Every structure is written in C-alpha cells, then in structure tokens.
Amino acid sequence: MASSVNPTVRRRRLGQELRKLRELKGMTAEEVAERLLVSQSKISRLENGRRSISQRDVRDLCGVYGVEDHRIVDSLMQMAKESRQQGWWHAFGDIPYSVYIGLETDAASLRVYEASLVPGLLQTPNYASAVTEGSWPEATGADIERRVQVRMWRQERITDPENPLRLWAVIDESALRRIVGSREIMAEQMRQLVQFSMEPHITVQVLPYDVGAHPGMYGKFSILEFNDPQDASTVYLEGITSDLYLEKPNDVQTYSVMYEHLRMQALNADHSRQFIDRVAEEWAAEL
Q1: What order of strands is seen across the sheet that includes strand 221-225?
Q2: According to the UniProt entry, where is the signal peptide (predicted)?
Q3: Could you read off the pLDDT of 137-170 as tens digits, one per residue?
Q4: Which of 15, 203, 239, 279 could make an SS bond with 47 (beta carbons 3.0 to 4.6 A apart)?
Q5: What CA–CA distance (Å, rounded) separates 134 from 123?
C-alpha cells in the first residue's frame, strides 16, 4: 500500500534537521525570515513539516546557516526531493487530513479516544459511508465513495500480517448508541468491532455512561508513536477547517496522562467486548 519513502515523514524529519541547524547558529525564525525576505510563518511551517519544502529552500537555508559540509547539504537536498513525492493517499485527490494519514501510515502505535463515533480504522464501509454523508451534507456520491475508499485503505495498517499498527481505542458509550445510517448498519458495525477487538494488537475499551465526568469530555484525540527515535510522538486534534498537531514533550505527556485515566475508567477489554456484543444484539433485535 505505501512506498518505502513516506513523504510526510520525510518532510517532518527534514524540518527537524533544519530547526537543529538554526538553533546551532543561534538564530530565531524571525531572523532567518528577515534574511531570506520571507514570512516567519513560512520558516515555522517548514520546520514543523506542515509545508512542502523545495531543494531551493534547503539551499537557501543552508546558506544562511553557513553549512559548508557538502555531504550534509546533499543529504538534506535528497530529503527535500523525497518529501515532494506523493503518498498513496494523493491518488484520491484532495484529502483534508492527508498530513495525518502520512503520519498514521508510518506510526508504530496509535492511541485514540472517540466520543461520538467508532474510530475510522475500525469502521465498516457502510458505517463510514453513513458517517461521511451525515457529517458532510454537501458531499456528492463520488465524494463519499472517495472518502470511504481512503478509510478502507487506511485499515490495511491494522490488518497487515507482517507489520500491523498497534491500536488502542477507548470509545465512549454514546458512539455505540448513536444510530448512524440504520439499525442494520449499527448491528454490522458492532459485530465488526467485536471481531477487531479479538486481534492481539488491537485493544478496544468502552467508557460507559455511568463513569460520569472524565478527561475525554473536551473531545476526541489521538496519540501517534513511532519506531524511529528521531520521530517525536504526536498528538492529533481534528478540527472542522484545520487540524492541530502537538509535538512538544509537555503537551504529549499531558494527553498521555489523560489517556491513562480514560483507560482506567473504561471497562477492561473483556468486559468491553461483552458490552459491545450486547449492544450488537440490541441493534439486531430492533430490525
């Protein structure tokens, strides 16, 4: 599904290297921007991997930082070239969360909390279609089909027999109770959720209503972790018009602690599976 070079991750690593060079030079992003006659926001976006970076950008920045070792410059230029390649998801056109998909594709593990929906990686095609149609009223049939296809391709990360993504999902009970599409679709989705929860690399926990107030009441979030120590853990917060990526250690630690509290308050894996199975039977009984 994915090529050996992940452009999103390449861009992210390149940004980290450029930030290190700037800091070694003792310069601020504002000072660099003034030297290159560009905006400070451009420098920041290049460093955090949220903006495509050209080989010319790398050349100019290396000049400002006084990098004389041609091996370093050549390596950074190669990373810039690879970062402009297209990932598998670009074949589906403009996907608003393409940066996240790139990170998810390369992640080793993912912890996700969902308040009102079944997590995308665990959705059935019918449920995903109903979610997209309901949350995007202006979408055409082609738009919906394209989003569902992307979601199903993403699921290959958790079904990969050789290198599956380690997934831990805490799901609020409301996600199991809210009817999406139809009762038949909900029954099918609950049964698939049970099947996924039996996989050794997937853990699903339900946060029942009677828990009361909990740390996840502020909304859903995801924590991505990577095998390469150069890749910092990232907290992903999905928005309506833009997304937020948090990489500072203090931010990641804050959300990690929140997640631990959610895991402790939720039903354990076995009880969650039994709970979801009962909900599936309830949906099926109403058909």
Answers
A1: 202-207, 166-172, 109-114, 221-225, 234-237, 244-246
A2: none
A3: 888 999 899 889 989 999 998 998 888 999 999 9
A4: 15
A5: 15
pTM, rounded to two decimals: 0.78
Confidence class for position 3, pLDDT limits 50, 70, 90: very low
Contact 123, 151 (CB under 8 A): yes
Looking at this protein, which amino acid is placed at residue 93?
A: G
Q: Residue 74 burial (CB < 10 Å; 0-12/13-18/19+)?
A: exposed
Whether the CB-CB separation of 106 and 220 falls below 8 Å is answered with no
Residues 6+ apart with CB under 8 A from 20: none
DSSP state of 178: S
| Cα–Cα distance for residue pair 97/220, rounded to 1 Å | 15
pLDDT digits (tens, 9 = 90+) for 170-198: 999 999 999 999 999 999 999 999 999 99
State the sign of the Cα–Cα–Cα–Cα dihedral 36, 41, 44, 46.
negative
Distance CA 107, CA 8 (A): 11
Contact 102, 160 (CB under 8 A): no
> What's the full length of the chain, in residues?
287
